[in-house]
Specification:
The complex is a heterodimer.
Chain A lengths: L6 E2 L5 E7 L2 E6 L5 H16 L5 E6 L3 E6 L6 H14 L10 E8 L7 H7 L4 H8 L4 E6 L6 E4 L14 E4 L3 E5 L2 E4 L4 E3 L2 E5 L20 E6 L2 H9 L1
Parallel strand pairs in A: 6-14
Antiparallel strand pairs in A: 1-2, 2-3, 3-5, 4-5, 6-13, 7-8, 7-14, 9-12, 10-11, 10-13
Chain B lengths: L2 E6 L5 E3 L19 H10 L8 E5 L4 E4 L3 E7 L5 E2 L2 E2 L6 E3 L4 E3 L8 E6 L33 E3 L11 E2 L1 H6 L5 E6 L8 H9 L2 E3 L7 E5 L14 E2 L4 E3 L7 E3 L6 E2 L3 E5 L4 H4 L7 E6 L2 H16 L4 E2 L1
Parallel strand pairs in B: 13-21
Antiparallel strand pairs in B: 1-4, 1-11, 2-3, 3-10, 4-9, 5-8, 5-10, 6-7, 6-9, 12-22, 13-20, 14-15, 14-21, 15-18, 16-19, 17-18, 17-20
Classes of the chains: A alpha+beta, B alpha+beta.
Amino acid sequence: MRQEKMRHAAAGAAQFRAASDQSLLISFGQHITLDSHQRVLKLLHLLQAEPIEGLRNLHPAYCSLLIKFDPLRLDHDQVQSRLVPYLARLGKTPLPAPQQVEIPVCYGGEFGPNLSEVAAMHGMTPAQAVELHSSPIYIVYFLGFAPGFAYLGGLPEALASPRLETPRAKVPQGSVGIGGNQTGVYPFATPGGWRLIGRTPVAMFRRQQDPMNLLQIGDHVRFRPISKEEFAEFSSR
Amino acid sequence: MSAILVQIPGLFTTVQDLGREGFGPIGVSASGAADPVSLRIGNRLVGNPQGAAGLEMTLVGGAFAFEQAAVIAVTGADFGPSLDGIPVAMWTSIEIHKGQTVTLGPSRSGARAYLCIQGGIDVEPFLGSASTHVLSGLGGFEGRPLRRGDRLELGAADSLFHKGLLSPKVLESLQPRKLIRVTGGPQSDWFPNSSWKTLCESTFRVAEQSNRMGIRLEGPAIPLDPSREMITEGVSLGAIQVPPSGQPIILFVEQQTTGGYPKIANVISADLHSVGQLRPRDAIRFERIEMSEARSLLIHQEELMASKELFQE
């Protein structure tokens, strides 16, 4: 019974596992690396550009892609064999050009109720924490959890902070948080366990726009500190 | 345009169709009816395409006044449906006159009842589907559960249709199960045999906090190897994830698209509609089957749904 879900493939280092009777998980290693992220991104783009008949959905993540298929038309072996030629092309597939996206953030105060505590945890002032958080260029590893929620890579280690012991029942929309070594923006008022350090007035998910999600997988993101006044001005636009 | 007026919304009533597939890359899960089998049958009983939008009621139903004559069907769990106070049958086509009111009460069995109306509920689609995604407030009717006074427009009805009644034999074989069948999940081999023993030999109770995102279960803790470190990955519908507490959660239709807990097992596709009928405090058990058997069961279910014997005239 164990063998049925362990599917080591010959194509590169990709590993296949049956996740359910209608989905197959492809993993590129067991570590979060830029290389595995780029392979996920390339495979996603190839499958979007040249769809395989019978595939229903794709769920990319740090170093894996979950593929949901129509179980009345395909089985795991068939999906896997159709994927092999795609995987063989990854090396020659160019990465799509990333967008450079700047996200204005009003740090601290009512918008970032956990900023002081995050700073104190690491023996720095809130201003230093803001400077550190807004200096790197983050990479969008994938969107998941909720519509438009971008998992960003590149948080300075000095800011990594444990999640709250009791998650908030409702995190305000646009909140910027830190959870473990991850940082990101809550696109909707959802429950959440990350420590909140600020808020952006920019919508991460825009129903009336194409694409609806502000951030795409692979994008480069920088946070720009703004004042409360600028926040208000942005919001009123 | 014809419409229905919400007189009593019920506990948690949303517009649902069969969901939106293909938006995992932007973090949007499929959503859709929690018991798609009941929605599909209800739609066919009123002459709609099987994926038309209907109303999904949860635990306690509502009352809906019809501004025009219509044909309806009530399917799913038995919420004691009535028409102007007179009980009506489920799983059959019912003709409604202008001004009549359809009322559903508290659940007598199962968690969800469906009201399908000829022409379907007409709402602006979001990413190709009428399904309400409650967490993000998108889709359905204003992205939220219905309230008193809401007016829902109906689509154009197809005049060419035959009234029908679901075959009792089919109804019997589609009965929601309390013994849920599962296959292995992507981290099955992370769990020692004792975990599988706990999963398949214990009774679990559905927790109150269960909803369309996930069914939380209470029971003996499922042992977990704490040395394993999980990297967030895509999660499939019906995945049984085991958080550090050992109390499993079944990821359901309005699931998060990715997750960081290991998944010991996955509910088979043919039993997902049974999960949609689980009520808080229900006792359930799990049975592990082979992937090939899961596939055969789904094929059998779909053959049944497509068979000529599905309806009696």
